[in-house]
Structures are given as structure tokens and as C-alpha cells.
Amino acid sequence: RTIIRFLTDSDYPPFNYLDDEGTLTGFNVDIARAICLELDVSCDVQARDWKDLVPALKRGDTDAVVASLAITPRALAEVDFTDRYLFSPARFVSRKNELPKLEMTPVGLEAKRIGVLRGSVHEAYLKAFFRDSLAQPFASSELAQDGLLANRIDLIFGDGAHLAFWLSGTNSKGCCELRGGPFFDP
């Protein structure tokens, strides 16, 4: 085979996203291209909606998915995975100058409203270790960010790299800052 077909999604910066010129880019896209370069084959990296990635792989529409999929028992029953190639810490984000003395611990965050991506490992972590916090799952990271901007939640808990990328961009409106952590836990 002279080409490897990869699928990823396009709305999870800095891992996979469309840049200002509409070009698919990001860490996962770079990983796919590095694999092709190492194997000396052509590379085709396309974007699909997140929900379509695994079904497309199962149908044979692609050779691989490179999108930071969580390795869960359910996912393992459907597809194979490589070894982990990235360990990204989880982080909290709060609005600047709010909750300045708050400790990012289970006791310190008791009764705090924490936005988290629904169905993510971050949601599972919050529910396991921050049981007395009020985890508020959102359908997307962007909706959680909007919730923090609108003061509907006190904090966000999620992928540290993704949150840092948001904080350094214009969509955050300079509102917020990383707090606590980093949290590394397999």
C-alpha cells in the first residue's frame, strides 16, 4: 500500500483543528504525517465529525484514526489501539481574580460548579475524586468555556493543553487562568 488514510476531527485544538486558512493541523495531524514520513508512504489525513470516526474505521473507510480517543473497554471491543503516545495533564481553569484562595483539592472544591466534557476521562476523574463538587457535563469544550465566561459555572476541568490553547487565544477574552495541577493519572 502506498498511502495511509487517517481520520481525525477538526475541533479540538491544539490536537486537531482548522487553522486560519482552513487547513487541518495540530498535534495529531503531525503524528499521522510523521508516521507516513517514517514509513516512506503517502499520507491522507481527513477530518470527520467525532461521532463518525470509529464507525468509519470499522467500515474500512480509513486505515486509522488519530484523534486522542480514550482507551475504554467498550472502545477496545470495537477497535485496536497503539500504545499511548501522549500524556497530557488535566487542569482546572477559573475566572481571573475569583476564588483566589481556593485550593484545587476535593475539599477545596466542595460544592463548586465544575464544567467538564461529557463522557470524557476528565468527567470520570471528577466524579471519582471530587465527589462533593458539582460536576456539570457539557456536550463540547466550547460550551463549557461559554459557561465559564457567562458565570454559569465556577471552573472548568479538562485537558491542560487544550485549555492553555483556549486561554492564549481570543475566544477566552482574557477572562481566565489555569489553576492547580497538573493532574496526571492513567
Our estimate of the beta-strand percent is 25-35%
Mean pLDDT: 92
**Span between N and C termini?**
35 Å
Task: Give the biggest beta sheet.
Answer: 5 strands, mixed
What gross morphology would you assign? globular
> Structural class, judged by helices and strands?
alpha/beta
The ordered string of helix (H) and strand (E) elements is EEEEHEHEHEEHEHEHE
Radius of gyration based on Cα positions: 18 Å
Report on this model:
- It contains six helices and eleven strands.
- By secondary structure, it is α/β, with parallel strands linked by helices.
Structure keywords:
186 residues; alpha/beta; five-stranded mixed beta sheet; three-stranded parallel beta sheet; 11 strands
Topology:
Blueprint: E1 3-8, E2 11-12, E3 16-18, E4 24-25, H1 27-39, E5 42-47, H2 53-59, E6 64-65, H3 73-78, E7 90-95, E8 113-117, H4 121-129, E9 134-138, H5 141-149, E10 155-159, H6 160-168, E11 176-183
Parallel strand pairs: 1-5, 1-6, 8-9, 8-10
Antiparallel strand pairs: 2-3, 3-4, 7-10, 7-11
